[in-house]
Amino acid sequence: MTTVGDWTEKEIQRFIRREAVFAKEGFKFSERLAEQMLNRDRDPQDNRRVCFECKHLRGRSCAAQSIPPMRFILQRCDDFVLKGVA
Prior knowledge:
By secondary structure, this protein is an alpha+beta fold. It has 2 domains: about 5-45; about 45-85, no CATH class. The chain contains 2 helices and 4 strands, in the order ββααββ. The protein has helices at about 10-25, 30-40; strands spanning about 5, 5-10, 55-60, 60. The longest helix is centred in the first third of the chain and has 16 residues, at about 10-25. The termini are far apart.
């Protein structure tokens, strides 16, 4: 596994992809969130997610809950299902 500083090449690529998607969606703190998610990914005890990762997010609403989603805030959600996973 290749590392740059204390980040692996895989982490760098994931960070770049996430930051680009968040920026495209208009989130002003895209770099900050992408780094928070990298730290979350490293901690097996951290089960927080962002709605943007969930298959229940439909545009700007959640198909699983009646409250508006907080698309870019790390949080815990009992209804969370990772996009792309059955």
